[in-house]
Design goal:
258 residues; alpha/beta; D-Maltodextrin-Binding Protein, domain 2; 2 domains; two-stranded antiparallel sheet; 10 strands
């Protein structure tokens, strides 16, 4: 017996096809439903939190590179020392921005480098001359970010730490510290946002290069790390990534990076 399909039957079959297609598509679209992300709002412009949305150099990198693979990035915005400790309590979680250093190497699983940031000795007084690290020992106070990588290069120096780089920029402008040692991107950004005189801020000496990374907790699965790493490395081949670096005037590579 010949089976005849009416237009109504064909329409019904078509609707079922669309329903099955979208169910399958949505199920496959996201590799991860939810990822806990630990960060801080005190390291602008590397990470900027705007209405619970990730912005800034590393923030936009993470959001854009994973938008088709991660359904939800759950932000945990904390003081920087606490963000680092809380991350390790959560399996398959991420932290940013994190400078990759020798001391930190075995404490995290490294997912992808976002950009290179020169670490500068910033001064704002013409009478303070810093040409070598030995000159730093002559200073009375050097501002650094608490639990930042800069402390690794400045052991036994007269350090004054803070959880807020904007606070350090203010102190430098008021001459309450002789110098600030930080990534070029963050101090120059905070200086500009405060409308301080740009002519007096000097990067007197570059002491190292911060490789700014997205990292995962040490308990994270290798598959979790490698899957995200492939996604981020693919994003780094795009025009969008190049535009992001240009937008914030940073570089993906630096000849001094080790």
């Amino acid at each position: 017996m010949e089976l005849k399909l009416t237009k109504a039957h064909l329409f019904y079959v078509f609707i079922l096809y669309l329903i099955n297609f979208f169910i399958f598509h949505n199920a496959e679209a996201f590799t991860f439903d939810n990822i806990e992300v630990f960060t801080t709002d005190k390291l602008n412009p590397i990470v900027i939190i705007n209405k619970n949305k990730l912005e800034g150099i590393s923030g936009e990198f993470l959001a854009e590179s994973t938008k088709n693979q991660v359904k939800n990035l759950n932000l945990n915005v904390l003081p920087w020392p606490r963000a680092q400790s809380e991350l390790q309590k959560v399996k398959n979680s991420l932290i940013l921005p994190l400078s990759r250093t020798k001391d930190r190497e075995i404490k995290y699983k490294w997912v992808s480098k976002v950009f290179d940031d020169p670490v500068c000795v910033f001064t704002s007084r013409p009478d303070i001359i810093v040409k070598t690290k030995e000159d730093l020992k002559k200073l009375k106070s050097i501002g650094i970010i608490r639990s930042g990588s800069e402390a690794e290069h400045l052991k036994d120096y007269p350090l004054e730490d803070s959880i807020d780089l904007n606070e350090l920029a203010v102190k430098l402008n008021l001459h309450k510290v002789d110098a600030v040692v930080s990534g070029y991107s963050v101090t120059s950004y905070n200086w500009k946002m405060n409308n301080f005189d740009p002519s007096i801020l000097k990067c007197a000496l570059i002491v190292s290069i911060n490789q700014q990374y997205i990292a995962a907790s040490l308990t994270s699965d290798d598959n979790f790390v490698s899957t995200l790493a492939k996604t981020m490395e693919k994003y780094k081949t795009t025009v969008e990534y190049k535009s992001l670096l240009k937008k914030y005037n940073v570089s993906s590579e630096n000849k001094n990076t080790k």
